[in-house]
Amino acid sequence: MKRTGKAIFAAILIGLGIGTSVYAEPSVNYKNIKVKGYLYSYEVGTFTNKNKAFEFILNLPENLRKSAYLYQIGNKYSVRIFLATSPSILTVYKPILKALNLPVKVVKTPDIFLYSIQLITATKRDAAERLYKRLPPEIKKEAFIYKTDSGYYTVRVFLARTRKEAKKLQKKLTFLPIKTVIVPTSPTKLGLEKQQEKLEKKPKELVPSSIPIIKAPIVPGKKAEVIIQAVPPTVKEKVKKIKLKEIQTPIVQSPENKTLSEFKIQKKLKKIVLSSEKLIKGNKTKAIRTKTSGEVVVPKKEPYKAGEIEFSSLLPLIDRTVNLYAQWQYNTVYKDGDRSSFFNENYNFNTPGEVTDGIKYLISVGYSKYHTDVDTWQSTFRPALNTRLTNDLFNLSSSISLINTKTSSGYNGKNKNYELIFSSAWNPKYPYISAAVSKNSVSSDDINSDTYSRRFSTGYTYKRNLTLGYSYTHSKTEDHVRDVFSETTNHNANISVRKAFFNGKIYLSAIESIYYSDNRYSLKSVNGYYYKKVYPVTGLSGIDTSPSIGTLTPNALLTDGDYNTSAGINLQTPYENIAINTDYQPVDLITLYIGGNLTTTDISTLQWDLYTSSDGNVWNIVATNVPFTYDNQTETLNFVLPQRIEDNYIKLVLTSTGATNIGYVTEVEAYEKVANATTVINDSSTHGDTTRVGIRIKLPLNLGYSFQYERTGRDGEEISSKFSHNLSGMWRYRYIQIGAGAGRTDYFIKDQDTRSSQRANIDIKAKPLNTLSLRAGTGYIENFINYDKTSTSFIISTGLNARIFTGLNAGLSNDIVKTTNEETNTSATSYNTKLNINAKLFPSLLVSSSIQHNVSSTTTDIYSVSSTWTPSEILRLTISEGYISRENDKNSSTTNISLSIVPRGGDIRYSVSMASSNGKESYSGNVFWQVSEYFTANSYLRYTPSDDSVSTGATVNARW
Prior knowledge:
CATH architecture of the domain at 2-190: 2-Layer Sandwich
Strand content: over 45%
CATH superfamily of the domain at 2-190: Sporulation related repeat
CATH class of the domain at 2-190: Alpha Beta
Shape: globular
Number of helices: 12
Radius of gyration: 33 Å
CATH topology of the domain at 2-190: Alpha-Beta Plaits
């Protein structure tokens, strides 16, 4: 658990600009700043000139620049990246630096930071000042603008000595509509060193207001107002004694920290009194300083009297915040002399709070109603309750939610969800336990289904070398209307061993995994035929304009059984690639589950191509414009494949889309056709095991070898096995890196031919100049059936990226793939060339363009150019043009022009835009008004000449 906390802390620091030394200011003086320990970073460069070091930071990629800072060592300035509490955490980011040819030297950085709560990060100071001016007066007094070494401007609130103290102060900001994070803050940038020098000259002078303050009210004899300041060590040495005396008049409450709840103040007061008593009993004294009187007295606590017990009500002890949000939206459309309009109202209420430090809750209620001008409506009521119990042993959280939807036509649908989650929080030296149960019920006039799920997992790690794990999941879905169901039970166990020898020069690892799955489900019926589900499959996705070559990213959301959450695939974006890995199982039908608000017209504009692959890199096209059917009830796209496919990978590519409404893919499933189905229920079990062994050797030449063996059985009988061998090597010398690899995979499938694949590749990367990087690679793949060669693929890939001069960057890539069918002695070659140019012609004018030429079964050319002109701080003009030329004359083009005007102050913003897609133009204008801290208004006007329609609308948002 501790390591998890460190990883989260490091992840937060990655996205923030953090500085330990001030740009154009002297570095930290450790005589006055206490070093609390050490943090760890990567040193990527050293300079004797501070300006050159700062320029080096500005030229870093965005994700590294935000986490970079300067550190002064004598007369040298060290550029460092990332901050972590342990060197082992930094290893996660090592590949990022290696990919950019940056050094990976781990260095220590003294932990002299204060900690603040960051509200926003901006590239310009004006944007940071606008938020700073809009802060409530109570928060504004504690806020400040902080410039990081990487050139970003941040708005931060409060200062604390430790992150734990800052976390308590962060709770005061829950009412702000901003996600806040805790960040380290350099004391030198705040002038703390100079302020400490003043304190040494004037011992009676109060601690500066920038030092964090904790307040607690006290009344004479019973309570008093005490302000404890986290003073620097030099001040603490001067204040060692406390003089107890009677307080005759209460101290006036300072308005600085009014956002603290009364309950938190009482708790802190109790801690102060108890700690004071312990000091008095031990004949120790301590001074408590304030802004107004310098020293105050904590009166001695009255002894308890027998028989006198004071009770307090529970309600005042509950710390809570109330958030209200409301939205009103009105739209009207004029088309062909007819007028249609609608009004939408949306309200949300939530109150997060805590009964104690370990018991927290969130109550939320939402309501929305959609009205049309034909007296139809739809309303949604959304109450929810979330609770969380945390302690040193375990965490227990629960959630209950309801979505009740009603319409004017009489529809009444309910979606109920219950969930309970338990996770251990005890010492990591003991095995961890995690468990959860949930139920989801959907009911309406034509739907009545229940989904039950439960899961359990446990594991144990011994000295980071031995890991044991076990997990169990069970889910069951019953559709009482269509009388179908699906039930799945999974058991997984694994053991892994890893060990490093000779100071990390040799690293060995071994993993053994065993699984058992029991599946019972109703067969799927499409066009009068029954299909059984193919299991297991894994999903992959990505946007690829050259689908004949290239790997896709694994996407677990495509096969996680969640049919409501988007898997990140937008059906309004061309060249979305959706693939499944079936391990050569036969597939006759692919089903895509979709979400959003697509109409039948939107769906009719979708066009898909079908590809297969044995290695997931080189793809062969099977069919273009694959037909599919749409099931409105289940919201699925069903693709009956033109032929049964028994390949390792199957891919669908969205080549064309004209959807105007939002649509996305939530899940993908594969099915095999059942020839003679005697029952509509399928019951089968799947079991298997996987063995992985690997070795890595770090020498001047880095070598690696891995072996993997997988077995899969069904209903007690082994049906497939797979052997994989992979060998890799890499050599790096100054500006050049050479990598090579080879591998072979053999598939043995019952009642099918043996399939094999072997491959080899060489990749070369070079960076002879800081402004020039080159790459070249080649690969060769052979496929076999029953050890007879069936096909070969030869790949050549080259590319370069160059910064021609400051403000002008260019990139060129070329890919050639030649595939040969050894059985028919025919071959096909595909080419892909892409040129990118980004230019900053003037400080106010940015231009980017790209040209791509694809040659495969058809020839496709893709052109795009965009420019942004910012002649002043209040005016921005953006123009983009895209054109796709296809060999079959199915060309398409898009044009977008937008002009935005932001007057000084930023309370009112205007924008106008023009868009054109395939000859259909539209014009629109928008006005945004920040009425106050709690109200915003937004209105628009849109005109489409192609169908002679005008639409206008306004939205008002309120937040308290």
